[in-house]
Amino acid sequence: MSSVLDERRDIAPSTTILHLPPDVHSLDAAQETIEWGEAYGLTLDVDQKATIFAAMGERLDGSWAAAEVADFKGRQAGKNDTLKVRQGAGVDLFGEKLIIHTAHEFPTANEDFLRLVAVYEAYDDLRRKVARVRYANGEQGIEFVNGARIKYKARTTGSGRGFAEADLVVYDEAQHLIADHLAASLPAMLVSAQFQAWFCGSGGLMSSVLAWRLRLRALSGDGGRLAYTENTAQIVSLVDGELEMSIPADLLDEDVLLTHPGYRAGRTTRETMETMCQSLGVDKFAREILCVWDPMPEGSATDSAITSDEWTAGYDRKSAMVGRIVLALDTGFDLDRASIGSAGRRSDGNAHVELVETGPGTSWVEMRLVSLLDDHPVAAVTIDASGPARVLVPMVKR
Known about the structure:
By secondary structure, this protein is of the alpha/beta class. Helix content is 33%, strand content 22%.
């Protein structure tokens, strides 16, 4: 078994973060997937093959060793070609009956749909396997003679609900994925005998909590049944549980550019990279092209500063603030909820903090804030203006 793992590591010379699932017995399915792509004009480069080999190892009983697959690379680095091969082989070679491909925005999902349709239309033997292609808005998908389906959806908190026994769910643009999106679609695989969830994206944002959790699991080296491949110019590691990140001083250094699979494979040129850097600016070039992640957002780490048990243990129904208080406003990363908290001192001088109110959306916050300002001696209202809660700043100024 160790030789199988070594084989996967050997084909990933430019993968900068790699986590392999345990219990891999065979890589035959991975090799067959790569060969399926080559047969239909989808020849994968070394980094795309690295993702396939990491993801599609089989256990002794023939099930996937990886239940979760994550593939993070810069823009135009070939992630979607890897997905096309994975999805086509899933239907053609491995008997998968339902594949759901989601993206953050409809144009992305539709473009991926049209590209895979073009592959099936270009080859007679593939075309004969297609029963119907649905082009209607919201219904995009390929239906096969054998009853298999590949459905394409823009992500919402409802997309994926109503489907059952999905074998593969793809989360493209995974840097934008939120918990409610996952809750809507991931359970569709609950009763599938063999399933995988694929997360594909580029450099993480300040709001990329779920993507960061995947990255931290990979960096820890103890991610369970996670196959994780990332190509980044960022220098990142976990040292004694502490995250350390830095970026090279010269992003146009040849060795740095070679971390982008498209540049490494010759699909783009140094001149193009230099132009992109000038046009985007250093920061956005780093994130969008070289997969350099923004700082890790709060809530990404599995360990919290205060556990729920510790919080509950500190609950005191008799505690009350006296004198002036401070209010704090905050929101979820996607503005789906907002909360108001308060802090002050008790009569004995000890600190008191409490959650005043939390609710869906943000439209209710201003009226509730006015009420609190009228009813209590408020010394200050605080907002983290560097995060999504900055949308609440104008109402405080009023």
